[in-house]
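Researcher: I'd like a structural prediction for the single chain below. Treat it as a standalone chain; there are no partners to consider.
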Amino acid sequence: MIEINQDKFQKELDSHELVVLDFYSTECPPCEALAPKFEALDALYGKDIHFIKMFRQGNRELAEQLGVRSSPTLLFFRNGKQVGEMLTGGIRRSDMMRNLDALLPESRVREIHASVTPKTTETEALVLGAGPGGMAAAIYLAQAKVDTIVVDPLLPGGQVSTTHQVSNYPGFVDPQPGYMLSHYMSEQAKVAGAKMKVAVEISKVDLIKKEVLIDGHETIRAKTILISTGASPRFLNVEGEKEFYGKGISYCATCDAKYFHDKEVVIIGGGNTAVEESEFISKFASKITMVQQLPHLTANKAAQERAMADPKINILFSHEPRGFYRDGEKMVVKVEDLENKETIDLVTDGVFVFVGMKPNLDSITDPLEKDDWGYLKVDPDMRTSMPGIFAAGDVISKNIRQITTAVSDGTIASIVMARELQ
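Model: Treating it as a single chain, here is the predicted structure.
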């Protein structure tokens, strides 16, 4: 693998039939996460495919010419022509291998895959999830000289990384972009000595053996495990929702309502969360339009009565969203009347979606004790029902889910874990 500049790019394409190019930046967490995977795959595929790297900011002309607008970005070439996918952001090893495999004959792909040597890594503490709870735990564990590995299928930060601004985290006078607060946390954990394995594929979790298989070939074996995989909003799965997540669409009133002072918002949902959060948002917004798919609200009666009495709140019953769009500084919500099938556009300043949350436990099949909503039950020390397995943050059963409460959970869990490892 070599690093080149844009002046040598064409020569490299002319000299090699198959090429993969990594456009990277400095001070770029996703680039740091990609680097060891890129090097490892160079060792596997390097005899067949030429691996090259290029500093994006120093080679802007070529980057723009190739349509590269973020770091890292991986591009694949055959005979000088770009083929396959353009991979960006938190790039997984499996996505890279899929595109590399597509460049080679099937027989050679089988040979390369057969040559992958399984790897086992031993550690004292394994943190599953790099959100605020996991990061706080990693910092405390590492500072206590506990050998700690943090694993996450995405990049550090959890939901915080997609939050526009965070103004209520202690220690910061000015509101912090969510991605920057996530970056500060992960950097602090790394400085403390925690090892980060992010943007990986969690292939298997065995809590009884305290083993986690990542990327299909590396088994991490720990003495104790903290589950801090967080929770995710239940998505509507309509056009534009993911595109504008954190860029006009929010799932947290406490986090973002304050940014809509004297502005209009649309709320999707009619259950307890939607109705109760509408009361909070009403303290800031000048007008709220609530979109509820049923002909009635499903929140508790007291909350319904307060919402109905609020002059700022207008409710569209028997309507469902069909798409989210941007019109300049405004958001547009296309909604359908379920009775007459007609659609209308609601022009607004922002959108809040409250149709429920779910704990991120898809990769964990061991029989941990859970509450009625699927969240993990823990004791005051954050112990789960399995020995040596702890949990913290939004994945556990509790009433309040905020960055600060996740950090508190992670702190408690890590101190107890460190003591038990002594």
